[in-house]
Specification:
- Strands 1, 2, 3, 4, 5 and 6 form a six-stranded antiparallel beta sheet that branches. The chain has a three-stranded antiparallel beta sheet with strand order 7-9-10. A two-stranded antiparallel sheet has the order 8-11.
- The mean pLDDT is 95.
- With 307 residues, the protein is α+β, with helices and mostly antiparallel strands.
- Helix 8 packs across helix 10.
- The longest helix is centred in the C-terminal third of the chain and has 27 residues.
- Helices cover 44% and strands 16% of the residues.
- It is globular and about 55 Å long.
- The chain is built from eleven helices and eleven strands.
Length: 307
C-alpha cells in the first residue's frame, strides 16, 4: 500500500512515461491487490498500475511479460506504454513497481450488472482459444482459488464452510479424485476470466484484463472458470445449458473425451472454490467486501443448481 502524497507520485510517473501534463487523477476502487489510478493528461487518459508490495520485481516482470505476449497474440488487452528507457516496468524509489497502460472508457460486466450475450460469449471463447495457444515459458503461480488446488485447499479451509454447504464441498472430493489429469491437455491459461476482469468499452468492444494469476493449467480449468465466473447468471438459470454447450461447440481445438467427462466436475469445483475461498476470506477477516460476498453467493447458488 502506497504511503505518501499521491499527486506528487502521479506527476513523477507521468514525467517518466512522457504522458503529458497531468490534469487530474483518481483511484479506481476495484481489485484486491494493486493500486490502479486513472490519470487524465493534456494528451489522453491512462491507467497507472502500482503493483502491490507483495509482488517482488521478478513477479512484476513476469506479469509484464504475460501482458506483452497476450497483446502480441492479438488478445484484446489495453495497450502498454514504455517509460523513457523503453521498459514497460518502472521501478520508483527502489520499492514501487509501476506500469502504465491505455485507459479503457467503459466498465466491467460485474460493474455493469450484465452477462454476455451469446455472440459476446462466442467472442470470449475464441479469445480464450488464442490465450491458451500463447507460447510462453513462465514460472508456475500458485493460486489458492484455482480448481486444481481443490483437495489441498479443502483440507486447509473447508472447515470454514458450515452445514449443507460443507457437505456439498465434501461430496466433491471423491469425484475430483477420479479426474485423469494426465489425459487432460495443459497450456497457458489466464485462469481468471470472470465478470470483473472483462471490460466493455463505449463501443461495446470487449477487453480481457488481469493476467496476474496466469500459468500453466488444464485447458478445461480455463473453460470452467469462464462458464462459472463469466456466463453463469445466478438470477436466471435458463441459459446455463446453452452456454455450457456453446463452450463445447465453439472452443478450438475440440475437447477430447477425457476433458468432456471431467468438465462437469471442474465446473462444480469452480463453484466450490468461490464458496470456500470467499468464506475463508470473510471469516478470517482477510477480505470482507461486496465483491467477496458475490463470490460466496455465486458459489452457493451454483453448487445448489448443478447438484
Amino acid at each position: 500500500q502506497y504511503q505518501g502524497e499521491l499527486s506528487v507520485l502521479v506527476q513523477k510517473i507521468a514525467c517518466e512515461f512522457q504522458l503529458g501534463d497531468v490534469v487530474s487523477h483518481q483511484i479506481i476502487e476495484i481489485g484486491y491487490e494493486d493500486l490502479n489510478i486513472k490519470v487524465t493528461t493534456s494528451r489522453d487518459a491512462y491507467l497507472i498500475k502500482i503493483f502491490g508490495s507483495f509482488r517482488d520485481e521478478e513477479n512484476c516482470k513476469r506479469y509484464i511479460e504475460i501482458m506483452v505476449k497476450a497483446i502480441q497474440r492479438g488478445v484484446p488487452h489495453p495497450k502498454l506504454y514504455p517509460s523513457k528507457n523503453g521498459d514497460y516496468l518502472y521501478k520508483h524509489d527502489e520499492h514501487l513497481m509501476v506500469c502504465v497502460m491505455e485507459y479503457i472508457e467503459g466498465n466491467s460486466f460485474y460493474d455493469l450488472h450484465e452477462w454476455p450475450t451469446i455472440e459476446e460469449a462466442k467472442t470470449l471463447i475464441h479469445e480464450v482459444s488464442k490465450i491458451n495457444s500463447i507460447d510462453i515459458q513462465i514460472q508456475n503461480y500458485y493460486d489458492e482459488w484455482s480448481p486444481v488446488n481443490f483437495l489441498k485447499e479443502f483440507k486447509e479451509k473447508g472447515k470454514y464452510v458450515k452445514g449443507e454447504d460443507y457437505k456439498r464441498l465434501e461430496q466433491l472430493v471423491d469425484p475430483f479424485k477420479t479426474i485423469q489429469f494426465d489425459k487432460l491437455r495443459w497450456g497457458f491459461a489466464h485462469s481468471d476470466i470472470i465478470r470483473p476482469n472483462v471490460l466493455k468499452d463505449v463501443d461495446s468492444k470487449l477487453y480481457i484484463i488481469d493476467f496476474s494469476v496466469s500459468s500453466n493449467k488444464p485447458i478445461i480449468q480455463e473453460l470452467s472458470v469462464l462458464l462459472c465466473g463469466m456466463f453463469f447468471n445466478e438470477n436466471n438459470f435458463s441459459h446455463y445449458p446453452e452456454y455450457y454447450q456453446l463452450i463445447l461447440d465453439e472452443y478450438r481445438p475440440k475437447l477430447n473425451k477425457f476433458e468432456v467427462e471431467a468438465f462437469p466436475i471442474f465446473v462444480k469445483t469452480v463453484f466450490a472454490m468461490f464458496l470456500m475461498l470467499g468464506t475463508y476470506n470473510k471469516v478470517t477477516g482477510k477480505i470482507d467486501t461486496k465483491e467477496n460476498e458475490y463470490w460466496i453467493r455465486l458459489g452457493k447458488i451454483g453448487l445448489t443448481y448443478i447438484s
